[in-house]
Write a structure and sequence with these properties.
Chain lengths: 443, 398
């Protein structure tokens, strides 16, 4: 007996490290069917990258002799410009090489390859190469291109942040669009009535929080399906804001003449040539949104609050068992999400000169939802996604402004197409917080 | 008596929801009136009665727009069959029915998906793609290429295909990889709009001749759906008949056929359905295909028959309204048709209200949102009926 035990013990201890390393390896890749699916996904990705490489090779060979002309405003917006030109063929050669390398690395490294990062690196060059090819010798001002990209990312990025905070807590937030609309209208009214610039964003945020609280109340207190509750907010927002606009704001335009929040020049930094006008002469909203993204990344991943938030979104029952008040936590998360979304909405009506208009958010809330998913519920990735989406929009504007005949609808539907591909898990599965969308029963 | 009581219980929550929502809408009218708000402090009673009076005027306009003006109807009854007078008297009611046609279709489509446990909010996109299919069929086969009845059938067929194709992807992804249909259908709604924009602004055979506006050619030149009323100026075409037949077919399918039973089983408890040997995957895809096809059929008939033109915004808010209708109608075909007729009345009445009193029709969206909230939270709705003191004690005992 004892001999058996002894002989068994060493073999077990020998086996232990093996299984441990095995478990470690599998846990990083996923187990069983999941791993298989990931393998397939990575092959699909490699195939896609290879396809893009071939496609760009074809474009490369066809674009000899075309010059891509770009310009920057050197000192300030609208100031003297520096222009330069690159042979388009060179840009496309880089893109081809990039995609080729991605395809190869993806195939050899499998699921460990950081394809998101790689796409992030290649896609800006791709956008330029595309732009240069389409412009066909016309000069494009890149300062405008970059600033409009960054500005677009403001409402979408903060909206996405609102989505992330809510969904991490376990509340599916498809009502970002509705809260943006409310924030935009209330922000404009508050700013017009008080004559104080800062009143706009504050009022927008507070109203957004109120709307979000109502949403949470429907979903948590009455256990209304969270998608239906979100739909209620989205429909109601279009109805209420359009109604109020046509009935009050349009006939009495004094309610809709907000004090715009205009871009600021950051001292010293804004005088850096080329970079200054792009990065340091933006709306204060931009700097705030970058700050918020960093702040919430820290909060979600590095603090007790963040741990509890994620626990409530993943395993609310387990969280409840160890004494976390899941209901209260979700309410709070929804209020924060509402503050953020309302604040983001106020940017839409306060950044320009027009104030609030009918359906002024124009689907940005849904793009934010796309960014949440594309960014895998991570604030920084989601902000990156909104930058990419912003770039496609900026490219569309630039091209249509220069009279290039490319159907803008194709570029404009890119974010939606990308989201479907991502949700489909074809190029890499993203996993939503496990309990997002499920009501929590506190026993 | 018993049947009546049963019916009363069934319509209690929907009826209460719509009435309370309309009441809240009236409050909204009163408190967005700046004159009322301005007078509220100095002369509260006068201001409030002014506001309530205006809301009453608005709602009476809504009523007249929905059902017709009693005075005109009186005149028509006395006119001994003067067609022009009758046409004027009946037009509001007929237009309300016309407005309810797309709502019946998309409401039915959405209901089939809801019954299977799929939250298809892509009604607008599927409707739009059905309209695309119908428009293309009209352009290719209409105007004498094929005999008119065949052209009409082809329009309907292409509508079915267009809608089903647009619904296939979310259904497939949901069934195979579990991708949330909510997200995919929202995204596909936007893509459908952009796609129509692309179609009607880039192709000569689709776009209206001067080729400035992003709209298609007048489709009445190609296919004309026959009207069903003896008075030609009232535009109620066969769309409503197809809609009612579809409702009957959906009712039979859901509650009398084996496939329909499987779909409902999948909607009630997908794990149990799987365990009982029903293919949950095929159920989801089938439900989405049927759901999309019905919405698409509606899109084709509305584009060719009612609007007679394809434009990017053809779906309007029909996707939203359909969700409200499906929920209020209890995702039952009979309930959906009844609710769609009510919403059709509201919609056409609302447009007259907007013309006569300047109160924007968007109020209806707000009312729909409230109705959805009330229906989805029956506890909340019935709480309104209950004695508030009793509710308080229950909350304490909890």
């Amino acid at each position: 007996m004892s001999a058996k035990k002894k002989s068994a013990a060493p073999s077990r201890s020998k086996a232990a490290p093996v299984t441990a390393t095995k478990r470690l390896r599998t846990s990083s890749v996923g187990d069983g069917a999941d791993a298989h699916q990931q393998l397939i996904a990575s092959r699909v990705r490699a195939g896609l990258f290879a396809f893009f490489a071939l496609l760009s090779l074809a474009i490369t060979s066809g674009s000899a002799g075309v010059e891509g002309k770009f310009a920057f405003w050197a000192d300030k917006v609208g100031g003297t410009d520096i222009s330069f030109s690159i042979p388009v063929i060179l840009l496309w050669a880089i893109v081809t090489a990039g995609f080729g390398a991605m395809a190869g690395l993806q195939l050899t490294r499998g699921a460990t390859f950081k394809w998101r990062l790689a796409i992030g690196l290649v896609s800006p060059i791709l956008v330029f190469a595309l732009l240069a090819r389409l412009l066909d010798g016309t000069t494009a001002n890149l300062t405008v291109f970059f600033t409009s990209t960054l500005s677009y990312a403001i409402p979408v990025g903060i909206g996405a942040l609102a989505g992330i905070v809510a969904e991490r807590s376990g509340f599916l937030n498809i009502a970002i669009e509705g809260k943006l609309l409310f924030g935009a209208m209330i922000g404009s009214i508050a700013s017009s009535l008080t004559g104080i610039a800062i009143a706009g964003p504050i009022a927008g945020a507070i109203f957004g929080a109120g709307v979000s609280l109502f949403l949470a109340w429907l979903g948590i207190r009455y256990k209304v399906d969270q998608i239906i509750a979100g739909t209620v907010i989205n429909i109601g927002a279009v109805g209420v804001t359009t109604f109020a606009y046509l009935r009050v704001l349009q006939p009495h335009s004094e309610f809709n003449r907000p004090i715009g929040i205009s871009p600021i020049q950051i001292p010293v930094l804004s005088e850096i040539p080329i970079l200054g006008p792009i990065l340091f002469s933006l709306s204060p909203y931009f700097y705030l949104s970058v700050g918020l993204v960093l702040f919430f990344t820290y909060m979600i991943y590095r603090t007790r609050w963040g741990l509890r938030l994620r626990a409530a979104g993943e395993q609310p029952n387990a969280a409840g068992t160890v004494g976390i008040d899941v209901v209260k936590l979700r309410y709070r998360a929804m209020i924060i999400a509402g503050l953020l979304a309302g604040f983001a909405g106020s940017y839409i009506s306060l950044s320009g000169t027009g104030g609030f208009g009918v359906n002024t958010s124009a689907g940005k809330g849904f793009i934010a939802l796309a960014a949440v998913i594309f960014g895998a519920w991570n604030p920084i990735y989601a902000f990156g996604a909104s930058l990419i989406f912003g770039m496609t929009t900026a490219a569309t504007t630039l091209l249509s402004g220069l009279g290039v005949s490319l159907p803008p609808q194709i570029l404009l539907s890119m974010p939606y197409v990308v989201t479907i591909i991502v949700v489909a898990g074809l190029i890499g599965r993203v996993r939503a917080p496990a309990s997002a969308g499920r009501p929590y029963d506190q026993g | 008596m018993n049947a009546l009581k049963k019916f009363g219980l069934k319509v209690r929550v929907p009826a209460l929801s719509i009435s309370v929502a309309l009441l809240v809408g009236a409050l909204f009218i009163v408190f967005t009136d700046l004159e009322v708000l301005g007078g509220l402090l100095s002369d509260p009673i006068g201001a409030l009665s002014l506001g309530i009076g205006r809301a009453a005027v608005a709602y009476s306009a809504l009523f007249r727009g929905a059902f017709g003006d009693p005075a005109t109807i009186q005149k028509a009854l006395e006119s001994n069959g003067d067609i022009l007078v009758w046409a004027r008297a009946l037009r509001p009611l007929v237009e309300s029915v016309v407005a309810s046609v797309p709502l019946i279709f998309v409401g039915l489509g959405v209901s089939v998906a809801f019954r299977t446990g799929i939250f298809n909010i892509g009604g607008a996109g599927q409707f739009t793609m059905g309209a695309v299919g119908g428009t293309l069929a009209a352009l290719f086969f209409g105007a004498g290429v094929t005999p008119a009845p065949i052209a009409i059938l082809l329009v309907m067929l292409f509508g079915l295909i267009g809608g089903a194709a647009w619904a296939f992807l979310p259904g497939f992804l949901k069934a195979r990889v579990g991708a949330s249909e909510v997200i995919t259908t929202i995204m596909l709604n936007f893509i459908a709009g952009q796609f129509v924009f692309f179609l009607v602004s880039n192709f000569e055979f689709i776009q209206k001749p001067p080729r400035i506006q992003p709209v298609s050619k007048e489709l009445s030149q190609f296919v004309d759906l026959p009207g069903i009323l003896p008075i030609a100026s009232l535009r109620l075409d066969i769309g409503i008949i197809v809609a009612l037949l579809t409702a009957v077919a959906v009712s039979w399918f859901l509650f009398r056929s084996t496939r329909g039973f499987e779909l409902r089983a999948a909607g009630l408890n997908i794990a149990a359905a799987k365990y009982a040997g029903m293919g949950a995957t095929t159920s989801i895809i089938t439900a989405m295909l049927i759901s999309g096809a019905i919405s698409g059929l509606g899109g084709a008939l509305v584009a060719v028959g009612t609007v007679k033109q394809l434009s990017p915004g053809i779906a309007g808010s029909v996707g939203f309204t359909a969700i409200a209708i499906a929920l209020v109608g209890g995702t039952r075909p009979s309930g959906v048709v009844a609710t769609a007729l009510v919403f059709g009345l509201l919609q056409h009445g609302g447009s007259l209200m907007q013309v006569q009193t300047g109160i924007p029709i968007e109020m209806l969206l707000f009312i729909q949102a409230l109705v959805i909230a009330f229906i989805a939270a029956p506890e909340l709705t019935l709480g309104i009926l209950k004695n508030p003191f009793r509710r308080r004690t229950r909350a304490v005992s909890k």
